[in-house]
Every structure is written in C-alpha cells, then in structure tokens.
Amino acid sequence: MTSHQCSYIEINGAALYYELSGNPNGEPLVMLHGGLGSQHDLLPIHEYVAQDYRLISIDFRGHGKSLLGDLPLSYLQYQQDVQDVLNHLGVERYSIFGFSDGGIVGYRLAAQAPEQVTRLMTLGAHWRLEANDPSIGIFKGLTADFWAARFADDVADYHASNPKPNFPKLVDAVKAVWLDTTASGYPLEQVERIRCPTLIMRGDNDFLFSLDEAVSLKSKIAEAAFANIPMTAHAAHQESPELVGKILKQFLSQPQN
C-alpha cells in the first residue's frame, strides 16, 4: 500500500516543494537530489524502497518546482531548508539517501543531528574540496549553455515545472555552492561526528568523486560501508538503478545495534 501527496512550504523567503510517497506507515526516508537536478532524478530507485519506507522527496531551493528566493545558495542553506521541511512534517528520526549535492547535505545533517539520522546513504558525494581537486576546473568552466546542451531533457523539465525559471541565474548560484570552501560549504572533518550506519557509493567511472576521496571518507566514519558501482559514472542510480536499488535495499535491511 503506497500513497502520494505533494505540497509547498514557505521557508526563509522561498516556496519549497516536497512530495510524500511510498509506505505512509514506514520509517521516513529523505530523498535528496543533485545540483541542477530535481527529485524527479531519483525516481528510478523509488521502486526498491517505496514498499517499506515513507519517502520524503524535496526540491532544493531554485531546483525543480522550488523557488530560488533571495538568499545565496549553500550546503548550509540546503541543510537548514531540509531540517525546516522535516520540522514542518513533524519528522524527528529519519534515514537519508543523497545523490551528489544531496549526499553532501546528508553528511552535514548526519554530523549535526546524529540523534535524528538513523541511516545515511550517499552516491557520488564529495566531503571536501581539496585545492588540487580536478573537479574545480570543471565547475569553474561550466556554463548554462553547456548544461542545457548536455542535459536538454532535464533543463526542459525545469522550465516546464519551475514557477519562476531562470536557468542562467540558477547555474551561477549552484557554481558558487560547488566552489564554496568556507564553513557553509563541504562538511570536511565534521564527517567524523557521523554516528549512524553509512553507505558511501560511487560510480566506478565517476570523474568528480574519485576512488581515493571515497576511501579517505570511509576511514573517517565509524560505521561506514562502501560500494563502487561498476560500469557507471556519476549518476549511477540512473545508469544502473537495479544494482543501486538492490544495494540500498540490502543496506537498509541490516539490523541496527
């Protein structure tokens, strides 16, 4: 038995869009998408978790159907937005699946509120941005035109669904998030405060989140498991949803101490 509902909530000058789906009696599982994407991108793995979990899918501000508002974007702002949505819903304990930017927000949430996050699963999610990280050049060189050419369907969906679309403005705002090395950005050593069982995943051909960085992260988190998804790149959940979905399901079914 699954249900589905959607709504907006006004948070700090922006209307944020969220959807509730899956098992209404299940444990909450927060689904967080990547930068310049939307919750729609995570639909390929819903079928593996929807029977057992109450899925809470949130569009980050400016993304999907959420409005951008006037505040600058940051991982800290995303974190606060997610916490505000969960407070609005009365959700006190929850698990997280986060892809890319969503996973980075997941690290921050699990480190800041270890008593609330019961499990954390990330895919292709940095935990720091070293000065020599090859992704810096990629981020800096990114333009709205390049993204629109590479991900034409995603950008068309954004224009069709966002109440006030301005894609070039969103790209500039998100690039600033990706390049932010201040306290409002990547979690850095905060990840050592994560206490819940954590699953770190990456696509084997992910050129943004390297194997070395994933292994370094695993060593920082007390209860971390690691999965390298073969024959996939950054968006492994879209390239190989069955494999990623089954790993998620198996991880979620592990008994907790």
TrEMBL record:
GO molecular function: tropinesterase activity
EC number: 3.1.1.10
Enzyme class, broadest EC rank: hydrolase
Pfam families from the UniProt entry: Abhydrolase_1 (PF00561)
Keyword Nucleotidyltransferase: no
InterPro entries the record matches: AB_hydrolase, AB_hydrolase_1, AB_hydrolase_fold
Annotated ranges, domain AB hydrolase-1: 28-132
This protein's UniProt keywords: Hydrolase
Protein name as catalogued: Tropinesterase
